[in-house]
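Operator note (shift B, R.M.): manual run for Putative cell-wall binding lipoprotein requested after the automated queue skipped it. Running by hand, logging everything below so the morning shift can see what happened. Input copied straight from the record, untouched. If output looks odd, do not overwrite the archive copy; leave it for review.
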Amino acid sequence: MTLIKSFKSLLLLASVLLLTACGTSTAEEMHEHLEKAVEMEEVFEEQQQPLVKAEEREHEIYQEILSLGLAEMDEIEELAREAQELVEEREERIEQEYESLTASYNEFENAAEMVEDIEEDAVRSQAEEMVDHMESRFSAYESMHEGYETAIDLDRELYHMFLDDDLTIEELSEHIEEVNETYQQIIDDKESFNAYTDQYNEAKHAFYEEAGLDVEETEAPDSSEAENTSVDGEMSEENEEDSADITEEDEEADDASEDEDNE
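Run finished. Output pasted below as returned.
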């Protein structure tokens, strides 16, 4: 009888140890996927400073164009073409950013699918919290990326407008308002993305601790922000008068041409 009890006790202990081992094994396997996912965001991280630099230079160009007014078309054309090149560079970097983060999220999902296999409630609960933060982070990024795609198209159109001799102040103002609304949404999404990134990094660290893992970990990167990406400001009265003078001169030239044709 004593032997049977001892055998049952050993069997129970073995079962507990086996379950614990399985839980640790799952957490360790998740750790591999989680850290690999961070590694795959390296390209995303590499794009941050070049993007900020391009955005800030673009803003400088816009301010230069605004200070010139529509009368200085030669200088405006040169600046607008430089800005268009920056738009193309930003578009390329944003796509590299997107591919990097999407690949990282797909790798993360390999870890997320294993959460239900964790036996210990506390460890599983912490893992679920970590997954929630990552899902929110990626959702915020998708919204931010969609906004960037819209902004790129609007910026491209903006600098094309500056090359149009018939551009009016009203048309420019309406387009600038649309550009600024788009960038404001991007700023909001970026703030959400960075906040979720911080929450995810904290939750991942807490998951490792709860699972009893003594492992190396790398934090997921956030998104850098240019100091000023809005295209605010208005043309000075002098520049508006220059624009009006151009229109009047064009009309006078057209009238003179019509008179010559009639003669």
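Quick read of the result: The helical segments are 2-39, 42-68, 73-112, 121-161, 169-210, 237-262. The CA atoms of residues 34 and 242 lie 59 Å apart.
Leaving this for review. - R.M.
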